[in-house]
């Protein structure tokens, strides 16, 4: 999945065979471990060299005052940025008093591998110190999916060619200096430390640091417990100061002898609780982890993941690199959401500080979309977090002069962090995107309690927003004017089709949920007049259409704009927004990322097949994919409209990463591999889920011999296996399920798999990309090696 | 003109009879003296108390780095702000060592008056010091219209009730502390002094200070010469330090004796010249002024203004307050432009630091509009400045991906200072507005040299901008998408009618000018293909129209937007932009200021009369006048469509000022009284100037018995006198002139005045303003006193 010789292809594991300083930070993002609550970047155990060191706790941020671009209300007063917390994963090594550092001495072997089946990052290295002594170092690291406060490290040192004095320093380190994130041109944070020390302690083999963030006032505690085994003469000592707590182990270790350290790290934070309470919280987590012990944590982790993969594995025969990428990608999607528990899913999960740690609509549209069918409990948790933020969203809507809730376009704790009007407040589609996730989750799980306690209220308040935002024209058509859709190159337009279609679903779903939960709806002030108004607005929502071209318009008047001059745009001027002023972009037909095309997938039931093909062809020729989120929707629609090879190219674009990307260095944008899963399952697999109906229309590209995927749906587990001419549907758990295959209904049952033939593909409408923006072709080659060609 | 008891009505002079601290700063703006090069705010001679002290030199600014709201090109890197220069008008007084300060002792009388016929601000005050000694102080101040570097003060002190030791301190003071301007929410300038001292000198009765602005590096020199007369024992001394030079005069002055000081102050600045050169420049100016002496300066000033008023006076019988306001307002318009000489006309002239001293399109559309018919030489100078800035505008257009020139929406030296995209770069209409001023000036003066040297190039480069900005649709219609017109509540729209109509005129004028000056046009690369393309684009420019409503659209889709809920908007929520977020405003039908209606005036020949009436009625009901520029266009169209009383209300809104306005405190927005002149002459007088044709359609409101105005046109001077039933046209200078009166042609000649009857008015189409936004009715009352009623 990584186009770099140090990262060989493996069907399951992410493997690294040497350390390339040029891609170190990207590797740290890809080797990051997280459970959605605690995140440890894949830094080397010894802390240095590093690209960007970091440990994160979901929800811990610092506030930075914003200079508003223009006076006026509706503009946030402060930005929020996820900040690194006390780093508990550091284990430093000295060999005969020489620090173990890959930049010095000689490295004989280096191998790291992250196995999505065990959830453990394993490392083996053999190193000769400048003094000449050679040691073998092995480490294992995990962030527990079963004990959410816990990260753990096991660390072994073994001299190879004679006795050495080995010193191991296990640290908790706060306010670690780190390079500034790249994506902050305007508001450079102040240089002073983010964490203010409150308490430091070290006793026996136990360490603890407590801090508070300077402005946001969040209390963070990190504590560690150790277990040391080594030869006779092994001695330990501890020390603590405000930003550092350290256990030092020293031992004379003979050749073939092993010094082993097991380190359990507990993390806790709170905006409200006192220092003793937060301290007690990490002590308790540490006690529980110690009771499990390192072997227990390993086994819990393996069992958790075995269960996950049994419900969620994706098998791809014929393209080992994609096989690896889809599994590693799905593992990161799981890591981002697994144990968030009423916190946001940040854009980069907890893999790095990119996007300032904000959560945006992409979490709902991509990450929660995938988790709905693979780890649905995580979806309920993330949407509970959105539910918690409703009071802020209600206040924000009122500030914007709107009814209902206006969820923020970028946030950590629920407060809007996007300052600029065209991109921030106008991007109201986030509300319908959250509603989409609610609708999808509820329909996919039949979680009636969630529907009643969480879903209803989210749907009602967002529906109210749309009704107050829009207006009827004299002909009775309902318009939503002056909004920005996902395509940020077309800010502030009237009747953005994506927004209107998503709002339409939102309005109807709110009315349906109110009918299902009539008593609760009454308590929210919903009456028949209101649900009727929602249904009426939904029925009459404007869907701009160009009669001459026979295609939908991305927004009113869009197809009347001048087409961007793609031929005159050199390759090095992409992404366009970094090289052309808004005045150039926003009055042209040029699409940053799938916008209308994404609606063709998410609201596919609202379009005739021939219309989808025309719309896809029209927008395909305008879409430059300046956002990595774009390829997912294009992959799905390419597959649906018969462009299977193109779909596969886009699928690969979602899943394969460029380690030289400065963006990847700041964390993995989880929505992108999530989009890769969608490209596989909804693209090649042709899965569609509208209302209560689950349907498939699988079709493989020539390259693939077999595609199989497993998913959860309405308390069933369903496995779909696709080969060239047919697909087999196997119900692994649950009662019979009515499904559709290429437009024909059938029933899947646990009795026997259902094998159905795939009808021949019709001739597709030709499509073309903008000049110079064709995706990399992913071709079949004789020896099945990956070939990248333009 | 000032609704405050301390400012009585006078047919010519602005008079102040007491000092009200609450309106002191506004009075300083209104009593400001300027010649367009030097500006002295109307501060009290003794410097304090003050609202906002200041002396300005046109073009002297400091640069402040801007934090861009969003990354991307096309955004300026620095803001420019007009800064106060060394203040030469200060004359402090001590009576028996007690400082003369209105806040202490007792004031028996205070009167200031600014006479537009003499250009002198005169002051008389009688004051008893806390010690009990009473003095009479008289001062006269002018900023010379004939010697542009010169300001001058005459100052007399006379003890009333016994001998006093009088001390007068005449100062040059740099880096005077001043309150921050109100309108800078985002970029507070640093607190350090703006002017860096370079030289200070005092010898005999002569003072001199030389400074440089810290970042923009402009050298500023101010020097003063004095003439002192007083009783025996009068002694003088001088001193100088980096930021202060002072002449001190002391004398024992008996009752009835007078100590008199005459102070001549010369100002100079340069971005390029050396310290000795700038110093020589002010020394030379001072020598010339000294040769004229105070009486000479007074006489030159009077003669200059006598000539001006002979060509420009406006007489209004029946409303003394309006009579005063239109004259004082026109005097300020003259002051803003008279001697700018290849510098900008800032939005506040040189009356205060408001709008940061920037020049915007309002200078061309309002101020130069008026000067074209009253002081045309000043217009040529201001447009020569725009011509000087073309190289920067050509670079800026290239940065925006456009051909031709993109003149800045706000600037001091030609560099764009507006950072925010919707309001700044998208407000491209400034280019057509400058072209409008070129077309108007050229047609009104037949200045062929200007046409050839200046006008042609401005027109060609702006026409090129429009051609590159626009595109033809498949039907051949030419569109200008994604721009912002004068109405800032409707940012970034397609085919803004105002912009399109002004661009249409721009394109045609460029083609015409190229044909008139074929050789110069060839040198600019203009060929027949290009002029044909301009004419074609002009011919096919989109003019959005709503067939259902039978009105033009302010921009494409505008009439499809929801109408703002005016009934639900309390009076204290205006101006709307300070209380509602852009998301609320920009998707609604609500008009900040006349936009389409202004086009109905400026491009009136493009509309049928009945269409204008329908369009005016439609937009009148949506226009909230949140900009003081709005009422002018509304006055003109109200008059044209038969709403004479409404026109008069709007005329009064342009001309009468509110001294409590914090905005007025920072300087007089010159475009507003200029709009008042337009409301009188084009509104009540019905003057239209399209192409070479000058026409009138005068009609008086009931209140006025007579209206007379004089103007310059094509080397003639024409006087128009309107009474209830007829108008008389008198050609005061120049050959016969073909004119139109209420649609009928006639010829004015110097032989005899032409008196023509005014036809009866037709029944107008009813109009209504938004709820709560009706202008103050200016009613007739029995004793002809002004009555303000809601």
From TrEMBL, chains A, B:
One of its GO terms (molecular function) is glycosyltransferase activity. InterPro entries: 6-hairpin_glycosidase_sf (IPR008928), 6hp_glycosidase-like_sf (IPR012341), Gal_mutarotase_sf_dom (IPR011013), GH65_N (IPR037018), Glyco_hydro_65_C (IPR005194), Glyco_hydro_65_M (IPR005195), Glyco_hydro_65_N (IPR005196), Malt_Pase/Glycosyl_Hdrlase (IPR017045). Keywords: Glycosidase, Hydrolase. The keyword Iron-sulfur does not apply. Residues 687-747 form the Glycoside hydrolase family 65 C-terminal domain. GO terms for biological process: carbohydrate metabolic process. SUPFAM superfamilies: Galactose mutarotase-like, Six-hairpin glycosidases. It comes from the Bacteria. The active site is at 488 (proton donor). Residues 327-676 form the Glycoside hydrolase family 65 central catalytic domain. Residues 16-270 form the Glycoside hydrolase family 65 N-terminal domain. Belongs to the glycosyl hydrolase 65 family. PANTHER family: GLYCOSYL HYDROLASE-RELATED (PTHR11051), GLYCOSYL TRANSFERASE (PTHR11051:SF13). This is Glycosyl hydrolase family 65 protein. It comes from Kitasatospora camelliae.
């Amino acid at each position: 999945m990584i186009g770099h010789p140090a990262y060989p292809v493996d069907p399951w594991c992410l493997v690294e065979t040497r350390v390339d300083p040029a891609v170190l930070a990207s590797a740290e993002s890809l080797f990051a471990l997280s459970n959605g609550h605690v995140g440890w970047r894949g830094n080397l155990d010894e802390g240095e060299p590093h690209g960007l060191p970091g440990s994160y706790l979901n929800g811990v941020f610092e506030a930075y005052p914003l200079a508003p671009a223009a006076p006026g209300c509706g503009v946030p007063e402060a930005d929020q940025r996820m900040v690194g917390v006390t780093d508990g994963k550091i284990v430093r090594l000295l060999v005969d008093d020489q620090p173990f550092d890959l930049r010095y001495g000689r490295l004989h072997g280096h191998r790291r591998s992250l196995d999505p089946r065990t959830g453990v990052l394993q490392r083996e290295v053999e190193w000769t110190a400048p003094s000449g002594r050679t040691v073998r170092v092995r480490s294992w690291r995990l962030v527990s999916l079963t004990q959410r406060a816990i990260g753990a490290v096991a660390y072994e040192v073994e001299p190879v060619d004679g006795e050495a004095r080995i010193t191991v320093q296990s640290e908790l380190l706060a306010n670690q200096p780190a390079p500034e994130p790249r994506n902050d041109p305007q508001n450079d944070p102040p240089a002073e430390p983010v964490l203010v020390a409150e308490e430091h302690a070290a006793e026996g083999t136990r360490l603890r640091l407590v801090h508070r963030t300077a402005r946001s006032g969040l209390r963070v505690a990190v504590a560690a417990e150790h277990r040391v085994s080594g030869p006779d003469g092994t001695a330990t000592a501890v020390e603590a100061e405000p930003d550092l707590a350290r256990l030092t182990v020293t031992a004379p270790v003979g050749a073939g002898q092993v010094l082993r350290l097991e380190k359990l790290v507990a993390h806790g934070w709170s905006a409200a609780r006192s220092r003793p309470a937060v301290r007690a919280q990490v002590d308790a987590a540490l006690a529980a982890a110690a009771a499990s012990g390192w072997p227990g944590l390993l086994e819990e982790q393996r069992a958790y993941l075995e269960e996950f993969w049994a419900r969620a594995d994706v098998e791809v025969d014929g393209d080992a690199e994609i096989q690896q990428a889809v599994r590693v990608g799905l593992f990161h999607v799981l890591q981002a959401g697994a144990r968030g528990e009423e916190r946001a899913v940040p854009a980069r999960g907890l893999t790095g500080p990119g996007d300032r740690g904000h959560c945006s609509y992409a979490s709902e549209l991509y990450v929660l979309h995938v988790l709905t069918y693979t780890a649905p409990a995580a979806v309920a948790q993330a949407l509970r977090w959105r539910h918690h933020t409703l009071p802020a969203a209600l206040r924000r809507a009122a500030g914007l002069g709107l009814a209902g809730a206006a969820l923020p376009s970028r946030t950590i704790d629920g407060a809007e962090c996007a300052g600029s009007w065209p991109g921030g407040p106008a991007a109201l589609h986030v509300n319908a995107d959250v509603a989409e996730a609610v609708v999808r989750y509820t329909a996919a799980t039949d979680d009636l309690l969630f529907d009643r306690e969480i879903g209803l209220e989210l749907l009602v308040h967002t529906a109210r927003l749309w009704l107050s935002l829009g207006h009827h024209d004299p002909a009775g058509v309902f318009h939503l004017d002056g909004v920005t859709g996902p395509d940020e190159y077309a800010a502030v337009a009237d009747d953005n089709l994506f927004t209107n279609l998503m709002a339409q679903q939102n309005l109807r779903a709110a009315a349906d949920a109110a009918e299902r939960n009539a008593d609760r709806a009454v308590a929210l002030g919903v009456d028949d007049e209101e649900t009727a108004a929602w249904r009426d607005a939904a029925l009459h929502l404007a869907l701009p259409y160009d009669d001459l071209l026979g295609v939908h318009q991305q927004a009113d008047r869009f197809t009347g704009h001048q087409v961007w001059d793609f031929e005159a745009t050199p390759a090095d001027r992409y992404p366009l927004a970094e090289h052309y002023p808004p005045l150039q972009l926003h009055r042209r037909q040029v699409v940053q990322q799938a916008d209308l095309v994404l609606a063709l997938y998410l609201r596919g039931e609202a379009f005739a097949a021939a219309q989808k093909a025309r719309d896809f062809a029209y927008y395909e020729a305008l879409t430059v994919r300046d956002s990595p989120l774009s390829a997912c929707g294009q992959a799905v629609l390419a597959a649906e409209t018969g462009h299977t090879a193109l779909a596969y190219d886009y699928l690969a674009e979602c899943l394969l990463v460029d380690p030289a990307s400065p963006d990847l260095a700041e964390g993995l944008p989880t929505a992108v591999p999530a989009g890769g899963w969608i490209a596989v399952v909804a693209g090649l697999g042709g899965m569609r889920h509208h209302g209560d109906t689950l349907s498939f229309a699988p079709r493989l590209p020539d390259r693939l011999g077999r595609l199989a995927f497993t998913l959860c749906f309405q308390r069933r587990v369903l496995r779909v296996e696709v080969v060239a001419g047919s697909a087999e549907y196997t119900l692994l758990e649950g009662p019979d399920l009515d499904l559709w295959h290429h437009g024909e209904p059938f029933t899947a049952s646990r009795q026997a798999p259902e094998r159905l033939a795939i009808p021949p593909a019709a001739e597709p409408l030709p499509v073309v990309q903008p000049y110079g923006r064709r995706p990399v072709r992913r071709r079949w080659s004789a020896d099945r090696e990956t070939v990248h060609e333009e």
